[in-house]
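Onboarding guide, step 5: your first structure request.
Type a short instruction followed by the sequence, for example:

Predict the 3D structure of this protein.
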Amino acid sequence: MRSTWLLLLLALLSPGAPAIECPQPLRIAFLDKAIPSKLEGDGTKFASPPGRFVDWLDETLRRMGCAAERVRVPQRRLLVETANDMTQVTFYFAHTAERAQQLVYPTRTDGQPERQLALAETRLALFVRADRQSSIRWDGAQLLPPRLKVGIVGGGVEEPLARAAGWDLDVALSHAGSIAKLRLGRVDAAVLPQLSFSEQALHEEPALVALEPPMHRIHFFAPVSRALHARHPQFVKLFWRTLCEVARSDLPHGSPMPTCRAE
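The system replies with structure tokens like these:
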């Protein structure tokens, strides 16, 4: 009996698994434009409160026992600076094949993005003013009448899709800017992810509506630089898993709760 208690005591006193090695530097980039209910304020500074995205990150780092510098940068620099390891993580970036050539996303064994670890999923759709809905037609392939002016955000996931469609484009710096142009009638339609709006904002006059069918379904992640992944693969794996768990725990009550299990 005495030997059993001694073994238990030694087990309790023995060090557990080594803590994850926290990378330094660790700079995490956020967009410099507000995202309704998710990221507050515009510009290089973080608002107070900063929004749920920053809360998710801070809780993730707290659970991992790591520290990081948070920065806000324009849309077009998000990809470039993380690809060049000037920032090590881009927070909340949609997956595209082009971006996956420069950044590391959570990936399944078949090379496809690991959607179980996605932070969010949304539709990319063409939005129009409700008072013009009857005069604009979209069948999933063709937008009519011809020569409509379509708003996009430069560097956004929508840009390559819109350019491939051959539309006459107006390029804004942010989704908020593209929405403002649509409401003012400076563009006829705008390609936007549905998470750009709260339900209330859609109904503000002049009201906006999404044309069916949606253009694309997109998944958002926190991709990392190839350099960070090469130096700290175990940190990256745990970071993605922990961030997913934090984000899932913040879903509204009653929402589906997919597990954060990866292949």
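Each response can be followed by summary notes, for example: Confidence is low (pLDDT under 50) at residues 1-18.
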